[in-house]
Amino acid sequence: MPPGLKAVDKPNDPIMESQNKIVHGLWVGPALSPLEELCLRSFVAMGHEFHLWLYEPLGHELPKGVVARPAQDILPAESIFRYRYGNQFGHGLGSLAGFSDIFRYKLLYEKGGWWADMDITCLQPLEFDAPYVFRPHDVLPVVGNLMKCPKGSPLMEACFREAQQQVTADNRDWLLPIRILNNNISRFQLDTYIIDITNKDRWEVVEYFIHHNATFSRKWYAFHWMNEEWRGRGIDKNVVPRASALWQLLVRYRIKADGLPLPFFRVPRAWRWLKKALLPRLPYRLRRAVKSGWQAMDYLRVHHTRRVHIEAREG
How far apart are CA 52 and CA 38, in angstroms? Predict the structure, then answer.
């Protein structure tokens, strides 16, 4: 771990009460899904106080330990925008991501502390004595969905001013606001504060924890569920496979969601039925070909599941 990034050893350490205590997040809309409620409850359970910045009241009560804050104190509601176009990764149309990036840069400059996107689940207390903490990204050195900055940071001031000028509703470059963050981290020589504290931003890893009874790595302080992939793929955040890693988190924090059977059990059972009902009716040569195809698919499915499981556990 780089100098200055030592985790606090003792629970309830005074440093947790000051620079690590408060976590900020933004929500635009009238209601939270189970995934966002999980974000709030997980941070509170790990000893943090979550400040949720809102532009309108929610239709339900917030969990104890969550403080509702008026987002207009940071940026006026008139400044909210959604992306008008998709991006190079095939998603982004209608997303608030660009506005959210601008909002977090200004908020962290004025308030300081931790920022967490609402698709982040806290797995361990974020107790670090460093003034800055950034998490790495698969494409760029850093991504800003979970980070810590001090109040009045020149880094956040520069990021806010540049993002406010360059990131608009017409932006088609999904990485632009993140690139602004990375460029300024290098400019202010803060690269030593990059630390691997979460899962990788890869959908096959995230999807594995959505659909399987998997164990989170002990190295992870948080888990990023990649909400934009859910949105782009049309996945309902109110429906979660039962007994999966995500489902167990929802159960732990008493969050209601509709349950589905795990695909791991459902798919093989369907295949066994097809083999029993369909194969005897096929001509011999076709039956041999179908069997070979099924065996190949079985091998690929098991091999892929094992590979993703190993990668997920290794972080």
Answer: 13
Q: Are residues 38 and 151 in the same domain?
A: yes
**69: which 2 tokens?**
């804050």
Question: Pick from 7, 144, 118: which is nearest to 66 by CA?
Answer: 118
Best CA proximity match to 147, nearest among 123, 166, 130: 130
Question: Which structure tokens are listed for 269?
Answer: 């059972």
pLDDT in tens, 71-106: 999 999 999 999 998 777 667 788 999 999 999 999
Domain that holds residue 288: 263-314
Number of structural domains the chain divides into: 2
Cα 11 versus chain centre, distance: 25
pLDDT tens column, 201-232: 999 999 999 999 999 999 999 999 999 889 88
Q: Please list the residues that pair with 148 across neighbouring strands.
A: 114, 133
pTM for the whole structure: 0.80
**Same structural domain, 154 and 272:** no
Residue type, 290: V
* Claim to verify: residue 183 and residue 276 sit in the same structural domain: no
- Whether 268 and 177 map to the same domain: the answer is no
